[in-house]
């Protein structure tokens, strides 16, 4: 049975309803994703403060009993809308002491040129570190600390460049890619939160070190990380404690070690290794946990298909105050966008491309590098369109919007074959719609 939409007044909203549209543009509201379930009376009050009526999806209505349903634990990206059956914990918003407001001081083109080899250097440094630790040698952390400082500086100057490079490059090893991408996501979020440069260095280094304990696990276990039995998952969980033990005499700061120790803890106490909850989890570990979770959803694996970034964003939003603190989850989404940099997308006219960057003020209208025409035939040269700029003076019927996110590896969408650093095209409607 198909989903049916129904228009209702906001004072008739009930817990369990799925809000699919508003009486105003989504970007004029604080709701970080388009479409969400009403999970509490706080959600009702938030919608009421901005809207008079909304559209709900009738087929998406969840009864209270469904919200209480418990499912068997499984370590799989497809196993959960993980919010179901979990305790909800609400804390006061995070208060960043003396937050820093960062300005973007360079262009995407210049920063990509500056940082093009940074992730190659980072992966090489991680490889050397992990090999040393794997053979029980004494690790030299200076190269990793230097790499982290360079990553922090790049994200501070221009947050999209390193994110683009990390999302579009090939990695030799899943663990290195996971650590690197987690670090980049976390730094972009930390920049948005206003963490000072010192805290960003702790956060980035902690994320890079967070996977080191996996060196002590069997390779075949790691290769099936998303498809583990209960017994295997119990063994897998040991990587955090093993990593902390490996790094305990390394000279790392307490803040960095807290990220390694706490990046798999969860807001409601459902994480590991200690099962701590709420404000007992350090702030940097909370940010790292969100970043690591998000990367685990969208990162390609040999044994399982990743979900699209927009679905990962929706899943993260659904977990606010359950596995992740509400304001931090929303800050992460605001920092990376509804369609994060590197997301493959199809526009409403059939053209396909990849998201280059996004604007916090226009979360549904990012900059897109278009790589195919409306019949999905590859273009000889890509064209970059700023959807926000293009649409701001046009009627809704003329707007170019994102129809959907596409799966990783969609045929014909390889950004390596195009130059994203060229000048932005001056678009008009006739040039957008290619015969």
Summarize, please.
The protein is α+β, with helices and mostly antiparallel strands and 435 residues long. It has 17 helices and 9 strands. The protein folds into 3 domains: 5-68, no CATH class; 108-336, Hypothetical protein af1432, CATH 1.10.3210.10; 344-432, no CATH class.
Supply the number of helical segments.
17
**What is the CATH architecture assignment of the largest domain?**
Orthogonal Bundle
Mean pLDDT: 85
General form? globular
CATH class wording of the largest domain: Mainly Alpha
Q: Assembly state here?
A: single chain
- Structural class comes to alpha+beta
Word description of this protein:
By secondary structure, this protein is α+β, with helices and mostly antiparallel strands. The chain folds into three domains: 5-68, no CATH class; 108-336, Hypothetical protein af1432 (Orthogonal Bundle); 344-432, no CATH class. It has 17 helices and nine strands. The protein has helices spanning 41-48, 64-68, 108-115, 118-134, 142-157, 159-168, 174-193, 197-209, 219-223, 230-236, 238-247, 254-262, 283-298, 309-318, 326-336, 387-391, 429-432, and strands at residues 5-9, 18-22, 36-37, 53-57, 344-347, 352-359, 362-372, 378-386, 402-405. Strands 8-7-6-5-9 form a five-stranded antiparallel beta sheet. The protein has a four-stranded antiparallel beta sheet with strand order 1-4-2-3. The protein is globular, with a radius of gyration of 22 Å. The chain starts with a strand and ends with a helix.
């Amino acid at each position: 049975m198909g989903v049916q939409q129904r228009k209702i007044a906001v004072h008739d909203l009930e817990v369990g309803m799925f809000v699919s549209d508003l009486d105003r543009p989504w970007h004029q509201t604080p709701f970080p994703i388009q479409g969400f379930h009403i999970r509490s009376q706080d959600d009702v009050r938030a919608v009421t403060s901005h809207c008079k009526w909304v559209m709900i999806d009738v087929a998406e209505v969840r009864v209270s009993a469904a919200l209480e349903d418990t499912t068997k634990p499984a370590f799989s990206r497809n196993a959960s809308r993980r919010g179901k059956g979990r305790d909800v914990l609400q804390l006061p918003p995070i208060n960043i002491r003396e937050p820093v407001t960062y300005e973007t001081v360079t262009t995407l083109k210049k920063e990509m040129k500056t940082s093009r080899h940074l992730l190659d250097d980072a992966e090489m440094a991680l490889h050397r570190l992990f090999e040393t630790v794997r053979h029980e040698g004494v690790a030299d952390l200076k190269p990793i600390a230097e790499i982290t400082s360079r990553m922090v500086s790049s994200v501070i100057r221009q947050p999209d460049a390193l994110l683009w490079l990390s999302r579009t490059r090939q990695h030799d090893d899943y663990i290195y890619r996971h650590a690197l991408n987690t670090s980049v996501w976390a730094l972009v979020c930390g920049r948005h939160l206003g963490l000072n440069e010192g805290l960003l260095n702790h956060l980035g280094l902690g994320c890079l070190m967070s996977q080191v304990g996996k060196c002590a696990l069997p390779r075949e276990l790691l290769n099936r990380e998303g498809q583990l039995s209960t017994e295997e998952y119990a063994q897998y969980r040991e990587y955090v404690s093993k990593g902390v033990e490996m790094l305990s005499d390394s000279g790392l700061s307490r803040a960095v070690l807290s990220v390694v120790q706490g990046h798999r803890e969860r807001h409601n106490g459902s994480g590991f290794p200690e099962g701590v909850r709420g404000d007992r989890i350090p702030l940097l570990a909370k940010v790292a946990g969100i970043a690591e979770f998000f990367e685990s959803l969208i990162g390609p694996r040999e044994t399982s298909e990743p979900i699209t970034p927009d679905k990962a964003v929706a899943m993260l939003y659904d977990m606010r105050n359950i596995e992740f603190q509400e304001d931090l989850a929303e800050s992460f989404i605001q920092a990376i966008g509804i369609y994060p940099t590197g997301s493959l997308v199809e526009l409403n006219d059939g053209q396909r491309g990849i998201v280059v960057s996004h604007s916090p003020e226009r979360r549904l209208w990012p900059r897109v590098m278009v790589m195919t025409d409306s019949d999905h035939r590859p273009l000889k040269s890509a064209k970059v369109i700023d959807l926000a700029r293009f649409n701001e003076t046009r009627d809704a019927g003329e707007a170019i919007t994102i129809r959907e996110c596409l799966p990783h590896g969609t045929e014909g969408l390889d950004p390596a074959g195009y130059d994203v650093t060229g000048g932005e095209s001056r678009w008009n409607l006739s040039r957008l719609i290619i015969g």
